[in-house]
Amino acid sequence: MKTILLIDDNPVILQLITDILESEGYGLCVCNGSGIDCQGVADCIDLIISDVNMNCKPRSCLKSNVPVIYISGDCSLISHLKHEGKLALAKPFRIHELKELLDVVLSD
Questions:
Q1: Which among 3, 61, 92, 97 is placed 20 to 30 Å from 18, CA to CA?
Q2: What DSSP state is assigned to residue 105?
Q3: Which positions ≥6 away from 34 have C-beta within 8 Å?
Q4: What is the rounded distance in angstroms from the CA atom of residue 66 to the CA atom of residue 18?
């Protein structure tokens, strides 16, 4: 089972993405922006999905090769991130958009 670290300060977004990911069979570690304790899960994280504007910086405790999907309601910021070659989704996004990106990133 692939494990995803989900970071967002909006409880509605957290719940929505949690429901989607759990229904797809992914394991989750959820951070609401008040900080994250990666002890015990750092080696298990396969992907990070994070709001762009979060103070929660998990990179310090995770493997450097863990891919990140950035999410934001700021379409110009998402466009900029994509232009830089980063994985990004604009909020609100469609469920199939997230699933397609997950399939690409987490395919074995």
A1: 61
A2: H
A3: 56
A4: 19
Q: Decide: 38 and 79 in contact? Cβ < 8 Å.
A: no
Yes or no: is domain 3-106 CATH 3.40.50.2300? yes
Question: Residue 77 carries which side chain, given as an amino acid letter?
Answer: L
Question: How far is the CA of 103 from the CAs of 12, 21, 60, 107, in angstroms?
Answer: 24, 12, 26, 6
Interval 16-27: pLDDT, tens: 999 999 999 999
If we measure between CA atoms, which residue out of 62, 50, 67 comes closest to residue 104? 67
pLDDT of residue 59: 52
* Chain position carrying tokens 């929660």: 56
Domain assignments of the chain as residue spans, ordered by start: 3-106
What pLDDT score was predicted for residue 108?
65
pTM of the complete model: 0.86
Q: List the chain residues with pLDDT less than 50.
A: none
Cis peptide before 58 (omega within 30 of 0): no
